[in-house]
Amino acid sequence: MKLIILLLSSVSILVFLLGLFQSEVINGVRTYVQGEGLWAKAEKDSVMLLHRYVDTNDEAIYREFSRSLSVNLGDRRARLALQQTPPDLAAARAGFLAGGNHPDDIDSLISFFLYFQDVSYMREAIAIWTEADEEIARLQQLGEFAFQAHQRGDDDMLQLLQQRVNELNSKLNRLEIDFSGVLSDGSRWVKQVTLYVSVFSMVFLIGIALYISRRITQRLNDTEVQLRFSQNRLNSLLQSELLGILDWDADGGVLDANDVFLNMLGYSREELNAGCLNWRNITPEEFHDADAAAMMQIEREGYCTPFEKEFIHKEGHRVPVYVGGALFDGHSDQGIAFVLDQTLKKEVEQQLRLSASVLEGSRDAIVITDGHGQVIRVNQAYCELTGLAKESLLGRRLDSLFTANGATISELLQTKGYWQGDAELLKRQEQSVPVLGSINSVASDAGDLLYYVAIFVDISDRVVQERKLWDLARYDHLTGLVNKHFYSELVTKALERAKASGNRCAFFFIDLDKFKPVNDSYGHHVGDQLLAAVAERLTTTVRSHDIVSRHGGDEFSIIVEDVGSKENAAMIARKIIANVQKPFHIEGRQIHVSCSVGISLYPDHGHNASGLIRAADQAMYEAKSSAADGYQIYQLM
């Protein structure tokens, strides 16, 4: 029993630690995904500002470019500090703060980096990060070259720098997508590993339970055979060497006894002949009243009803026995008695009680049926899991208690004697609970089918975690919108549908204006609420089947299929801008923001996802810098 409790406790602790580990990993992935969004936003702003500075030679814009680039450089300082030996945690914390990360997320960023930097996915992500930092350093250098070129009035150099900035921006965009993809792959890998470990632990526990159940059933079969054999021995009486026989007198003397009785209590025939044996003296005190009642019955009726008692063995331990006696004919104080050793029977009873306690003490739902599949016993854990009473289950067929692939179950039970798989265990009021089920057949030594033992393990928590991980890999935690990684998949599918139908498809890239001052003035929690409110407005602006996505930071994207014409796309953009410009009321404050919208169209501006996304992104930056009405449709060069 202690072993079973220890196994159950160990598996429970393991599942808890796996859940805790999974939660910490998910939080770490979240902080890096959010940090990547801030990094990408700062990089795009820096590129845009550098373009503007090259065009205008406005030193205020150059200073703004340097401030925007400090976000990326802060993350670079944090990475280098964590890669030191030993890591410089203070410098890393300062770097992440400079990178615009929320103070509450910095400990998670540091811990995740230190603990998982040698894992293949994180190692690949760090390599991409390092490569991106090198490109950021080149961007900073291009800014310095632009400053010097303006000082010299070198227009040719400025034109060349514009081209190099565009090339560098394209490479950084690719690295950003690669970084997000690696983090998503790592998250899925953690989910699979923890799932496999959880399933292995559950399968191990089920195997132990099946083994114990088989042993219990085998012991019951052995006990049944032994009891039948004992009945045959009782019928034989004196012909059986297993039955103790003794002659006694009313004073307790044992006048004679067979070897079975002597061996039962550890005495020799010499000790018997010397008068050393007295049945009253070797009877524990608590059985004296039972002996007195038996003697009174013998005096009245000449015999006593057999009863259970104990004798004290010569070595001091007790021997449980079954005793019956009668008077000799013509005697009033002497008789004969038979004594049956009950040690084996008591051990069997104890084993049966242990078997029952194992069945009822199990935390898994257990059902035992006869060879025809009709329920003969269920444990309390099953009743608690389903809400059904034991009385309502007895006699029902096992296959009526759960839903699964019945044909597969029947075939496996016939060919292999067992089945295991996911199922839905039926509850009251037509409800169900997801379980990992197993059915094992139990046969006699002759090969006859005797029982089926079914064990059901509640996997509701596992199902919930799988759904959470599914959502985390595809949806933004703050707004509930499609995330950047999943959005790329949806773009590809939308293009496939557009190609099949011949319809035009529009892609909108949206960037909020004046969002950073909201964070700076009111705090990130207000900024988060503003982003969620903007997401809701964007969702209600377009049709219910159109796809709205958040790319991180204050950037959003929308896919509108079957848009019709460019004019329709422009009308949608104006509607988006108008709705975003309406005031937001957050925590008693009235907040105003605006947005810039870039639009690309299939097939007008491209035929693949990456090209159309890039075109919408470029159009958004053109809208931000030049479009009077806040949106811009991509123009082919």
UniProtKB/TrEMBL annotation:
The chain crosses the membrane at residues 193-212. Keywords: Membrane, Transmembrane, Transmembrane helix. GO terms for molecular function: catalytic activity. Pfam families: GGDEF, PAS_9. Its cofactor is Mg(2+). Residues 230-272, 351-396 form the PAS domain. Residues 503-636 form the GGDEF domain. NCBIfam families: GGDEF (TIGR00254), sensory_box (TIGR00229). This is Diguanylate cyclase. It comes from Shewanella cyperi.
